[in-house]
Amino acid sequence: MKVPFLDASNTLLYPILPLTAVDYEEFGYPGDIGDFQAIQNYSPYDKIQKDVLYPAVLVTSSFNTRFGVWEAAKWVARVRERAIYDPKSPILLNLTTDIVEENRYLQCKQSALETAFLIKVMDF
């Protein structure tokens, strides 16, 4: 997952965050109880189940002004806490301070990391 929106039910409660107010049209307005319940029903953070064997996941995110890196870290921490541990199915988090989308070298580096992750978890 690249820069995923994982904690919609909490992030949308803070209109001062970048892009939040703009996202109300797409994701719903948490001030409306019906919308808030719908948001909780699809928010990946709120859907993490206990005692489940999750597949291997590599979550990537970066520090920038458009979104909060804490969402990815919070989601990974919760999955690790609740999931059944299996070393063959790691839940990994890769954070960078670089803006990968604006740098070809970093895009290649990111692609190499993702490819290495896939090769490792698929036992090639």
Automatic annotation (TrEMBL):
Residue ranges of domain Peptidase S9 prolyl oligopeptidase catalytic in the record: 2-82
Listed InterPro entries: AB_hydrolase_fold (IPR029058), Peptidase_S9_cat (IPR001375), Serine_Peptidase_S9A (IPR051543)
Superkingdom as given in the UniProt entry: Eukaryota
Gene Ontology biological process: proteolysis
One annotated GO molecular function: serine-type peptidase activity
Gene3D superfamilies per UniProt: alpha/beta hydrolase
Family indicated by similarity: Belongs to the peptidase S9A family.
Described function: Serine peptidase whose precise substrate specificity remains unclear. Does not cleave peptides after a arginine or lysine residue. Regulates trans-Golgi network morphology and sorting by regulating the membrane binding of the AP-1 complex. May play a role in the regulation of synaptic vesicle exocytosis.
Protein name: Prolyl endopeptidase-like
